[in-house]
């Protein structure tokens, strides 16, 4: 029995980005500027879980800035 990849699997996310036409995010993942999961979040496929302290971390700010540079 063959199992179809899904969820947060990197290959699944890349295929879905390509299928849905998110080429800027797809290229950013391929050139390792952002992770596949971060691209999935930017495309609206996932929502990040809140941090333990409930605030925004420096890493989250840096990630948001990087994605804003990519998609304008």
Explain what this protein looks like in three dimensions:
This protein has 72 residues and is mostly helical. It has one domain (10-71). The protein contains 4 helices and no strands. It has helices spanning 10-20, 23-30, 36-43, 58-71. Helix 2 runs antiparallel to helix 3. The model has no long low-confidence stretch (mean pLDDT 86).
Could you name the key traits of this structure?
single chain; 72 residues; mainly alpha; 57% helix; globular
Task: Provide a short characterization of the protein structure.
The protein is mainly alpha-helical.
Low-confidence stretches: none
User: Count of DSSP helices?
Assistant: 4
- Shape label: globular
* Largest sheet descriptor: none
Order of helices and strands: HHHH
Average predicted confidence as pLDDT: 86
End-to-end gap: 43 Å
Estimate what percentage of residues fall within beta strands: under 5%
Oligomer: single chain
Q: What is the share of helical residues? A: 55-70%
If you compute it from the alpha carbons, what radius of gyration comes out, rounded to the nearest whole angstrom?
13 Å
Tell how many strands the DSSP assignment holds. 0
Domain tally: 1
Task: Produce the secondary structure layout.
Elements: H1 10-20, H2 23-30, H3 36-43, H4 58-71
